[in-house]
Every structure is written in C-alpha cells, then in structure tokens.
Amino acid sequence: METRKVVLLCGSPRLEGNTAQVLAECAKVIEREGLEAETVLLAEKHILSCTACGLCTGGECALDDDLNEIIDTIREADGFIVGTPVYFGTARGDVTAALQRIGMVSMASDSFLSRKVGGPIVVARRGGHTATLQELLMFFLINDMIVPGSTYWNMVFGWAPGEALNDEEGMRTIRRFAENVAFLIKKLH
To answer: Region 102-109: what's the mean pLDDT?
Structure first.
C-alpha cells in the first residue's frame, strides 16, 4: 500500500518558534494516523514575489529561487498545510509570496493543488488570527482544495517560543484538524 503524505509549510523565520512547534505537533498527529509528514521551512528558503509573468504554464515558476523544489514536494503529496505567524494582522510576506506563486503554477499547468486536503494554521501573540485565516483560506478555496474543519478555528496564541504549546484549546483544535486531514486523505484514497 502506498504511503500518503502531507506537506507542512512553516512560514516562521524562527526554526524553533511557536509556529514551527505547532506544526511539529501537527506532523506528529499526522504520522500517528499512519501518513507521512514532511515539513518545509521557509526560513531556510529564498522566495521572491510573483511578477505575474505568465511563464509558469510548463509546471514550474520562471523565477530563480527555491520555490520550484517546494512545488515538486507539494505536487507529490496528498495534503498541504500552511502555518504562519501573524504580522500586523496578516500572514508573513514570504508566505503569501510563496502561496501566490504556488497557486499560479498550479492553475497555469496541471492543477496539482486540486482536491488536495489541507488548510491554514495561524499563530499570534494576541490578535489578527481570524483575518489571517480568512486571507489564507482564499488560497485553499480558489485552488479547488478540500479544507476540513476542527473544533474551533485553527489558531493558537503565543509570543515567546513555547507559549503556543501552552494554549490548550488551540493545540486541541490543531490536533483535531491534523486528525481530520489524515482521516479525509485516507477516506479519499
């Protein structure tokens, strides 16, 4: 039987920050459910902004940075989860730059995002969670993806590294979301 995989894109600039820790917990749940989880750290990548050049019809982006390797990883996966810290009420700039380009390549070529299961996770000290979730949901929905729910919205509160893991309700919500992603992938395949 083929192993199913979920790619988790971590948009934090901090390798050990709250967003990375929340996604690590999410990955543990996905693996416990029998799927493979691969985390891509944007902090280790160079991502340019989309120029709307229209040259992505061949299945990859024409810009020369690290995005095409991320696209190849997502293309082969069954699920895609994006985690970001909230900066000024929105997702970090490199997260939105990556998602815009990933979406453009998918739409202009083989629609590789279509019917993948996933969704966004946001982490913030105090506010901006719901606006950022709405911003990121636009990416998932316009790309014909399947977004499962959870027991609350996929948001976690925390500022100093490790604080997010102490948000019991937030982490319970994230764990259930990860279970639902795995559940749907197994049901669909």
So the answer is: 96
**52 token code pair:** 């709307």
Report the distance separating Cα 103 and Cα 107, nearest Å: 6
Tally of domains in the chain: 1
Convert the pLDDT of each residue in 54-85 to its tens digit.
Answer: 999 899 999 999 999 999 999 999 999 999 99
Range of the domain at 100: 5-188
- Nearest 10 degrees: Cα torsion 72, 53, 136, 60: -10
- Burial label for 187, CB within 10 Å (0-12, 13-18, 19+), is exposed
Residue 70: how many CB atoms within 10 A of its CB?
Answer: 20
Instruction: Identify the CA nearest to 59 among candidates 108, 116, 7.
Output: 108
Instruction: Give the Cα separation of 107 and 111 in Å (integer).
Output: 5
Supply the CATH number for residue 165's domain.
3.40.50.360
Q: Would you say the pTM of this structure is higher than 0.70? A: yes
CB of 23 closer than 8 Å to CB of 81: yes
Within 8 A by CB and 6+ apart from 123, the residues are 12, 18, 19, 22, 83, 84, 85, 86, 155, 156, 157, 158, 164
As a whole number of angstroms, the distance between CA 161 and CA 163 comes to 6
